[in-house]
Design brief:
Two copies of one chain form a homodimer. Chain A is α+β, with helices and mostly antiparallel strands and 410 residues long. Chain A contains eleven helices and 15 strands. In chain A, strands 1, 2, 3, 4, 5, 6, 7, 8 and 9 form a nine-stranded mixed beta sheet that branches. Chain A has a six-stranded mixed beta sheet with strand order 13-12-11-14-10-15. In chain A, a hairpin with a 2-residue loop joins β6 and β7.
């Protein structure tokens, strides 16, 4: 969270247009034939001129070709990019040297179409792992998309990057500051968080503020920590995860130390909306669950306990069944690897105290069960051992999740 | 695994009688009224005289009253016990001082019935967390069970410790050695491995060999590592897990350094059968999955990779759907935290090579899919980075798991 004092004069208001709400960006989403259906499967996001860029990549040891290539490209340009090209329907992961060559061809083709060097193009892919791209279709799609680039196509792009996502995720805000106004836009996809086949998480942020690459990277990392990196659908981590940010500078507002908190606040607002959209649209999900751990010794300890609870299949199934089963929450916290005194811990569900002083408050269980019947669930765990806190968002585990992932591909 | 050379003259053969196959033990299983149905819910296992004893307990920070009490008792006696009393249907966990008093009353009542000190009684409970025991019914049940103690009641005891287990788990072997013959018996329960409500893992081993407490503990720890501690249903860890061993000495065969490998081999055989029974009977399970990781730098690294794959909901749902989705296996290994070179790794499913040199062998996928349709699935991952290996067993993740855990209690 940015410093509150420095944000007194800053106002965030929702804006239309998603990824192209900020000035200086065009986009397009087309169907090129990677997906068997007629659904959109290729998107280009292009800045009108050279833009600052920052990127975060999956920490999985197995990295897809576009991840390897994009990391090289942004290292080569030291934080500058002109365009991003994204395909869905094929992850181009575990595809060896051919896969790398295909990712490079996507960058070369996009560079030719928008007028920049291949190194100024970032590439992202999502879809089935271990399958080689139909590069002829992709190249044809890039040409079609390049001709269709427009500031009005944000929604097409947001749909073109989807795989099993039940709905597109896009959001934008206008940030008014004493130094001037600028916009931040974004789109994301992901359904299992960070999942190797269908539901890799991809996120894209744009702004028309003028931001130096190092500061852009700082804002991206800081906002991702509490948004894209604070969600989990199934605890999986993909070969293809990417989060990209581009700053066009078209608003004329230059971000410095004084206005950085406003930029960060805007990044947080857009990223949170997109990240929670991913959880709400998680595979088989029917509920959004926020797990807040307070009074931990460190933020990392709070995150570790919250994440263990969030990934507990027993907690997720209990929430699905609207069962105020605090015992599963206590047991997950107890096996998280974080040391704390159970007798000092408390558990609230929907603000209702269920566990304190090592004992249940089962008389309150029916009230908590009512809360659990809603679409948004709040679980609070106090460890009683410090002053730090963290929130992790997840969704419930349902028979539909099993169906989606058990029946896929076969 | 015990030294092969020292096992040349050792022969293991299955024996009848389960936990009471070894001489010197009696048991009983009764219905005392903790469960709402007429199902058995209380068991006593008693040695005819003082026995060596060893115990392993859950590592969860949240420990149930019987765990706290049993740990104290076996510490007090320094590895001697006369009886174990177990109830199902109520975990006596998160029940505060009242819960501890109830666990102690179970020990006192059992001690009075079998003629020993309360400290010579170990107590275990499994069932719903956060609910206070109906101690009057339990005390009455202990009296009834004590009158029914018999060497012929192994199966009743194995059924009385069940919760959602679809079938009882019991096994016994006769161990013939140059020093003489002895028996090892056991029973276990558990359905979610190590689950806070219904499916805590409890394991009990008996032997009529004469074993000093320190050596009994050594055999219990060593055999648990590759059996009870090498299974996972859902990655959860309970407040109530216990594994107890008792040695009556009734066979007259004293275990020393020369015959220890035979004892360990017998413990491994019985524990493996019981542990795999827990996985086969895992909540909602339809398949037993063995995940063997080879060519790791250390055994711990091999276990960590195998465990990450075993707990991956995407791998578990893919196996359920008979989908040879090696990408999910590679991605789970890649996020396990163990460092290795993906290009050196291989993945086999049912002995069929699916991934090598960073590339898929998708032509073999239909064969692997056939293997996955069976009840027992073998997944082999070579990390290509060392000489150590480990196996973890798990089951598939099914809609039935969600149903059991989403609809329980409400």
């Amino acid at each position: 969270m940015a410093d509150a004092a420095s944000l007194a004069d800053v106002r965030l208001t929702p804006a239309k247009g998603g990824i192209t709400a900020p000035a200086g960006f065009k986009t397009a989403g087309v169907h090129c034939g990677i997906k068997a259906t007629a659904a959109l499967d290729l998107a280009i996001l292009a800045a009108d001129g050279p833009a600052s860029a920052a990127a975060l990549f999956t920490t999985n040891l197995a990295q897809a070709a576009p991840v390897i290539l994009s990391r090289r490209h942004i290292g080569h340009t030291q934080g500058s990019a002109r365009a991003v090209v994204v395909n869905s329907g094929c992850a181009n992961a575990c595809t060896g040297d051919v896969g790398l060559a295909h990712a490079r061809m996507m960058a070369v083709e996009t560079a030719g179409a928008v007028g920049c060097t291949p190194e100024e193009v970032l590439v992202a892919s999502t879809g089935v792992i271990g399958v080689t791209l139909n590069i002829d279709r992709v190249v044809a799609g890039i040409r079609t998309a390049a001709r269709a680039l427009s500031p009005a196509n944000g929604s097409e792009a947001a749909r073109a990057i989807m795989t099993t996502d039940p709905f597109p995720k896009e959001h934008a805000v206008t940030v008014d500051t004493p130094q001037g106004s600028f916009r931040i836009g974004g789109m994301a996809k992901g359904s299992g968080m960070i999942e190797p086949d269908m539901a890799t998480m991809l996120g894209f942020l744009t702004t028309d503020a003028q931001v130096a690459p190092a500061m852009l990277r700082q804002a991206l990392q800081a906002s991702a920590r509490d948004t894209f990196n604070a969600i989990t659908v199934d605890g999986e981590c993909s070969t293809n995860d990417c989060l990209f940010a581009m700053a066009s500078g078209a608003s004329g507002v230059a971000i410095d130390g004084a206005s950085y908190p406003a930029l960060l606040e805007g990044f947080l607002a857009v990223s949170r909306e997109l990240a929670l959209g991913i959880v709400r649209g998680g595979e088989g999900a029917t509920k959004l669950i926020a797990i807040t751990v307070t009074n931990a010794r460190t933020i990392d300890a709070a995150r570790q306990v919250a994440r263990t609870i969030a990934n507990s299949p027993l907690v997720k199934t209990a929430v699905h069944g609207a069962d105020p089963n605090w015992g599963r929450i206590v047991a997950a916290a107890g096996r998280s690897g974080v040391s704390f005194d159970i007798d000092q811990a408390t558990v609230h569900v929907g603000g209702i105290l269920l566990f304190e002083n090592g004992l249940p408050h089962d008389d309150a269980a029916p009230l908590a069960a009512e809360h659990l019947k809603g679409k948004t669930v709040q679980i609070d765990v106090s460890l009683g051992s410090g002053a730090e806190s963290a929130t992790i968002w997840t969704c419930d585990l349902t028979a539909e999740y099993v169906r989606i992932n058990g029946e896929y591909r076969t």
